[in-house]
Amino acid sequence: MSTSSPPRAGTDADRPPSAGVEVTGPPSAGVEVSGEPEDGPDADSPVEVCTEAFCRTGARRYARQWAQEAARLGFVPTSAAESERLLLVHTVRLAQAVLAEPFAAQPGYDVGRALVDAHLTDPGILDWSLRALGDGFRDLVLPTCPEPVAARRIPALQGALAAGFARALRERTFSQQERIAGAAWVARDRVEQALRDSEARFRAVFAGAATGIGIADLDGQIIDVNRAFADLLGYSVTELRQINVATLFHPDDAAGMWELYQELIGGRRDSIRLEKRYHRKDGSVVWTDLAVSLIRHDDGRPRFTVAMVQDITERRELQQRLGHQASHDPLTGLPNRALFFDRLGEVFATARPTDQVGVCFLDLDGFKAINDNLGHDLGDQLLVAVAGRLADRVAGQGHLVARMGGDEFVILLDQDAACRDVTLVAETALAAVAEPVRIGDRHVSVSASVGVVSGPVGETGVADLMKAADVTLYWAKAEGRGRVACYDPDRRAREQANEDLVAGMSVGLERGEFTVDYQPIVNLADGSICAAEALVRWQHPERGLVGPDEFIGLAEETGLIVPLGHWVLLRACEAAARWLRDFPDARLVISVNLAARQARDPGIVGTVSEVLRQTGLPAELLQLELTESALMATAGEPLPALRRLAALGVRLAIDDFGTGYSNLAYLRRLPIHGLKLAGPFVEGIRSSDRQGLVDGRIVDALVRLAHALGLSVTAEAVETPGQADQLTALGCDAAQGRYFGAPGAEDGITARLAERAARRRGDVTR
């Protein structure tokens, strides 16, 4: 309900009419309103303009107040300008009625209906309209109308407006009710038709569906079934209508199925979906995909159940066959690796931390040769025979035997197996495999290697256990055929440490973790430094300084010796070039070890040539050292690469001479410039016992032999003055060892060369 006051005379009476608003003609002759209701250029003029009995400014002011109040009180379906224009027409119409002769209240009635037709139906609008008509209408719109006339006629218009508004609103309400009632009847007819159509469709689906459909009450008594349901179970529809669903349950499923059914009809479930067995009328069993839904009353109470069944007997049999094939090896029939890992996972999931788990990893020895020589068909027959023996003698004891692939088998012992038991099982498996196998007209003998690992479940995992078994099998293979190897954590720790070194070696080379130390080599004749041997060191970020004896062998095994050797060669030649530049008279030779793998590298000659070119070091100042084993490992003629290196002018020497199995005739044909006597011979000559005398004679013979071949001799590991004196007496040319200086940084050699140069300058001065 509006609380604003009706318009009063004088509040805006001095404002002129808006542009284009015109009221023409006598009061009773009708009214024409033209133009827009908005204020024009002279809207604020203080001059009041009246035409005959009408005040145009007041009419527009009244209409504007009316429109604003209508917009404030409720929804108005038109714009503000359109509402003001419409209400201006009604304002003028009411003014015309007041001035008309003879007077009639009908226009008020018409205006009331017009408000409803314009959807201005809020009760507050009617209230405001009536009060405004009585309080401010005459003062604003009809300022010249006599008071007695307005006092008689305006209340009559108020009553007529209210009556017209109420009558129109009532008629509109009745019309809407009739439309709603009609729509409800139409909707009901449509719903009933839809229900009839739905029932017809359901009957058609129920009768003709290929899926079996059955309806039962809450006690399980069958109410109705379709033909597909009856055919599935071998009954007639009439017979099934007399049967309770519980009589159809398979005995193995009856208890669980009835429990689920009770949950369903008790309202605790809305549906059930499972694979279930049923008894057919002839006693056979059919597997079905069963879906049961609960149908409720409108108030939610369970009413009956609807079951849909589909025969999946063939599909289930196929799944079982496929499941067996997926978990068993097609050749041998043994469980495959997938089933093995499933069972192993179950052991770790269900066992206590202290329970033991044991695995035997078995691999046939030389099986590839059998396949290559006798053919894959015979090899497959051998695998089948071996698998049969393992199944009889090992799986028969309650252990799982699986084929991992190829000629590998694995045995999983139960949780109570100790290491001794695992070893006994492994020996049983080896004995079974070792017996000759008759295949056709052949007797084939084969052996196997077995890796054994066992321990508490809580101390390992599936992946770690199988990795340990694989490593242990590798140990058994390395030790020879037909062996059982048990897992040794200490040995594995050492191997793991070596693997970590290998993994970090290439990274360490990139990060600059390797350094080169240099050990002086002196001329025994005058004690002057004549060469230096480059020795690589590894400053490991975690293990500290790692000596070459710990990583050089690993580098050779993995092939990392090639990039590492190239790096050492480059650093050593750079140092030698600096020594040559600073001490040209010294002509110091740099000696670098060359591994067998480097010597066999096809690019070794090019590598050495490029390093010499980059550093500017003369080839005759570079000596490459190879061990006897590296040289003798090359069958036939000497490595062509050695001859090409010698042709470059590079010196070649045999390192650790005397510890290998040298063929002197073979060495005579090699382009060798010198020998380096192995440390054990040098160490032996310092003793005065019989062994010392023997070692001394051996060194004397080796030196004589080397000199006869035109080779220089350098002794290694010289640690005492006595050794140095004896080597000098035996005619050895040079020596190195802690007595002459331990390996150190480049600065140490530089200092000795500087001291030697200073001493020579002093001799010249004197």
Automatic annotation (TrEMBL):
Q: Which SMART domains match?
A: EAL (SM00052), GGDEF (SM00267), PAC (SM00086), PAS (SM00091)
According to the entry, every stretch annotated as the EAL domain falls at: 498-757
Cite the Gene3D superfamilies for this sequence.
3.30.70.270, EAL domain, PAS domain
Origin: domain of life: Bacteria
Provide the PAS domain boundaries: 198-268
Alphabetized Pfam families for the sequence: EAL, GGDEF, PAS_9
Checking PROSITE patterns in the record gives:
EAL (PS50883), GGDEF (PS50887), PAC (PS50113), PAS (PS50112)
Q: What are the start and end residues of every segment in region (Disordered)?
A: 1-46
Where's the GGDEF domain?
355-489
Supply the CDD domains for this chain. EAL, GGDEF, PAS
Q: What is this protein called?
A: EAL domain-containing protein
Organism, per UniProt?
Plantactinospora sonchi
